[in-house]
Each structure stands twice: as structure tokens, then as C-alpha cells.
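so ive been stuck on this for like two days lol. basically i have the seq below and the ligand is nicotinamide-adenine-dinucleotide, smiles is in there too. i just want the complex predicted, nothing fancy, no docking runs or whatever. if the output looks off dont worry ill sanity check it later, just need somthing to start from for the group meeting slides
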Amino acid sequence: MATDEPTIIPVTGSAGEGGYDVVVGRGLLGRLPGILGERVRRVLVIHPRALRTTGDTVRAELADAGFTAVTAEIPDAEEGKHIQVAAFCWQVLGQNDFTRSDAVVTVGGGAVTDLGGFVAATWLRGVRVVHLPTSLLAMVDAAVGGKTGINTAEGKNLVGSFHPPAAVLADLDALATLPANELVTGLAEVVKCGFIADPAILDIIEQDTTAATDATSPVLRDLVERAIRVKAGIVSEDLREAGRREYLNYGHTLGHAIELAERYSWRHGAAVSVGLVFAAELSRMVGRLSDADADRHRTILASLGLPVTYRRDRWAALLDGMRRDKKSRGDLLRFVVLDGIGRPGMLEVPDTSLLFAAYQEIAS
Ligand SMILES: NC(=O)c1ccc[n+]([C@@H]2O[C@H](COP(=O)([O-])OP(=O)(O)OC[C@H]3O[C@@H](n4cnc5c(N)ncnc54)[C@H](O)[C@@H]3O)[C@@H](O)[C@H]2O)c1
Ligand SMILES: O=C(O)C(=O)C[C@@H](O)[C@H](O)[C@H](O)COP(=O)(O)O
Ligand SMILES: [Zn+2]
């Protein structure tokens, strides 16, 4: 199964929008000029300060290929998902005369692909974007599927759009510099994919946690490809989240509320980990998930070193945050739950006492 050949995972178009390829492999940068194509003259490379060297390498590759490449260096992590950072990027695009036939390239984790995707979606009402994800989480999730967004003072990803990329180059070599804790938080989204759609993911992690957390292992590559296939399959059917795409939000209702409560000092994947255990407890409480399947959430996530509990005294703030979740309809909170492993569904919760009871199971 070990191979150095790139794997191409197609995302087919839906809602009248074009499809694209997610390429997983090593040494993929040379593909970028060909993907951008001959019509593109100017390229804005958006990267965080922490990845300046990688951003410079991408800019040099583009310049060598004859593009006019400029960079926008943005604040790291969630600090970058801010309207003022988008405004800075719009300014760079404007000052460099970017037209509708020009393009944006993102280099970074999910915060950068979200911000850069949003900038591309809004500049001249939409220009091409290619994502070069550098974190595990961005490779398996954020760069794929076309959700873009920024945070507001009231919550996570409250402003954004659907803007599919022209391609995603998931270069596993980038993971060499990713801190171990960042790799682990990315695995929370991989585990999510295991619970909602591909139970083999769970078996693989349980069999060898060490290999699953080793950026160089064929096991991790297998997990990356499996998680991307889950996401690609769902977004190919439902780009704009009219139905099945909501399942990709498993664990996120509480997860996003924790991120807000922690003022983004927690990584997204860590908050989603707690959210997954909460959603499993909710599923168990309403009789839709067995004890064993619910307990498996806590066990597998804890085995990776991910958090599975959260502060008992924060319930009121969390409930407030969850009300602004995009799955809510009016006063009705809606959750992704499981009817078994690989069988996601929705639960409407008019009565918050049920949520409070489920929260007691994860409160510390
Ligand atoms: N659009 C979507 O569908 C989607 C899906 C999942 C998550 N997200 C978003 O993605 C974000 C989380 O992504 P994340 O976990 O990648 O966080 P992140 O982008 O904040 O990156 C985490 C940290 O890792 C650093 N980093 C990234 N790549 C590196 C590398 N190769 N070497 C060294 N350091 C590196 C970053 O600079 C940052 O400090 C959240 O904002 C979340 O909402 C979006
Ligand atoms: O792609 C999706 O759809 C997801 O829900 C994937 C999530 O992992 C991701 O964190 C997403 O950004 C959450 O979206 P939101 O609509 O709840 O902001
Ligand atoms: Zn997520």
C-alpha cells in the first residue's frame, strides 16, 4: 500500500459549480503553475507569519513559472480569520490590479484556507483559489469542500461563503514541521469521519495509535486519504449544505461554542473532540446509540491525547454560543447525532434540559 505516487481524489461539481481534484502526495509544488493555467497572470500567495519560508518558496516557484506573484503575510491561526485581515488582503489585491482572471493561493492551516478562500470568494465577486494546506486538519478537512469564512465577536465562522477551490495540493512533506499537538488536533476531524462514514478509520487508529500519529507513516497517509474521500463524497452531493453535508458538522455545535468560550486559545480539533463526545452522549441519551458505541468516542479520542471533558461552570456560555450555530432554525437547536457507527442523523432539541443532562456526562 505504501506508494510515492500521488493519489487524486475528485470532488465532482454540484449546484452548477465545477469539480476539482484533491491531490495527496509528496513534492507537489511543481504542479501549481499547470493548475493555475495560462490565463492567470497575477497570483496572491496568502500565508501566516509562521510559514514565511514556505510562502517564499511558493512565491519563487510561481515567479520562475512567469507569474507575477505577490504575498500577503497574515496573523497566525484564528487571529487571521478576521474582517480586518480580509480587508488587508483586498487592499493588496487592489493595489496590484488583480482582475477576474487572476488567482489566490493559500499556504497554511485551516485558518488560512478559510480566510484565503473568503478573500478569493469576495474579490471581484470571485476569483480562482488553489489551496496548499500545511496542517493535517487543513488537508483532511478545511481545504476541501469550499466552505470559507471568518469569525466575528459573536462566534465562529459566522460570515462566509461557499467557494470551491480550483484544486487542493495536500503535500504530506509539509507535515514534517507541524508540531505533534497540531497533528493530533487534526486527527479529531479524521475520527469524526470514522464515526459518520468510514468505521475502518476507527479500527486503523485503534490498532496502532503510534503509526496514526506519525507524519511519515503509510498509516497516516491512508487515514488522510480516507478522511478526504469521506468529505469529497459528501460535498460532491451537497455543496451548499442543503442536507447531508450537515453530517460533517458532527461534534461542532458544542465544539464551536467551546472555541468561542476559550477565545480561540483552544485549537479547533481539540474543541471538536469534546463536541464529539458530547454528541455521542446526546445520541445515547435519546436511545439512538448504544453504550459501547458512545464509549468508543471517549476511548479513541483520549487514546490520541485529545480532550474529552470541559468545564462544568461554563454551561450558560456554551448554550448561548450553540444558539448561533448554523444548524439552528429560529429557537430550535439542531444536532448531528448517530444511530450507529457510520449512520448519522439529525436531532431537533426544543428542550435544553436534555442538553444539560448530556453535558453532565462530559463536565469536569
Ligand atoms: N472550511 C472548512 O470546511 C473547515 C473545516 C475544518 C476546519 N476549518 C477551520 O480550520 C481552522 C483550524 O485549522 P488548523 O487546525 O489547521 O489550525 P490553524 O490554521 O490555526 O493552524 C494551526 C497552527 O499550525 C501552524 N502550522 C500549520 N501548518 C504548519 C506546518 N506545516 N508547520 C508548522 N506549523 C504549521 C499554524 O501556523 C498554526 O499556528 C479553524 O479555523 C476551523 O474553523 C474549516
Ligand atoms: O465542511 C463542512 O461542512 C463541515 O462542517 C466541516 C467542519 O469540520 C468545519 O469545521 C466547518 O468549517 C464547520 O462549518 P460551519 O458551517 O459550522 O461553520
Ligand atoms: Zn471542523
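Residues 141, 145, 147, 149, 157, 189, 241, 245, 248-249, 252, 326 surround LNCXM5UN (ligand 2) (CB under 6 Å). Residues 323 and 333 are 6 Å apart (CA to CA).
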